[in-house]
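new request in #modeling-help
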Amino acid sequence: DAKTTQPNSMESNEEEPVHLPCNHSTISGTDYIHWYRQLPSQGPEYVIHGLTSNVNNRMASLAIAEDRKSSTLILHRATLRDAAVYYCIEARGYQKVTFGTGTKLQVIP
Amino acid sequence: KAGVTQTPRYLIKTRGQQVTLSCSPISGHRSVSWYQQTPGQGLQFLFEYFSETQRNKGNFPGRFSGRQFSNSRSEMNVSTLELGDSALYLCASSLEQGRQPQHFGDGTRLSIL
């Protein structure tokens, strides 16, 4: 099964950019990289996904390394509402996804 | 556009009972996946359904089963409940089976006494 590696926790000051890293040591050529986040008492929320190129949407940016062994989720200006657990996963055609323990992001006012 | 709806939100059962949880996916989504989330094990994949067929299964005992109906709604059933089955059960839907983003419901909190 695909397995990603993320730091257990990170801190950021409010209104500062945040770079959340993820290692994809078992990624294969056709796996998409997805990021989700989970706020307390809610189900995970889709954030962004990509294959090889960097991606932007209204929530965040995703930077993917050239060898695809790592990715970085970028929140351009952290707000208190961004405090959550962030998960990166490798999405395969058969959707047997594995969520790791994620990164708990704390945003300091 | 309505999101993924899971019912009930909370459920209390006793050991040995069985339980059925329901999931209504986003309209037009044909793939439904189920996950178990516990503080100790995190988010674990249970199974995935597409076009009424189970396409993938995680490492859970046969007490955990599911099904999908022709309108893509899905149910999961747990029989002979054990204390360790206490968890948040999450359902996620996506347009097609594959690498598309999943959209999660807020889960059913199951407590076993």
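bot summary: Residues 57 and 89 of chain A are 18 Å apart (CA to CA).
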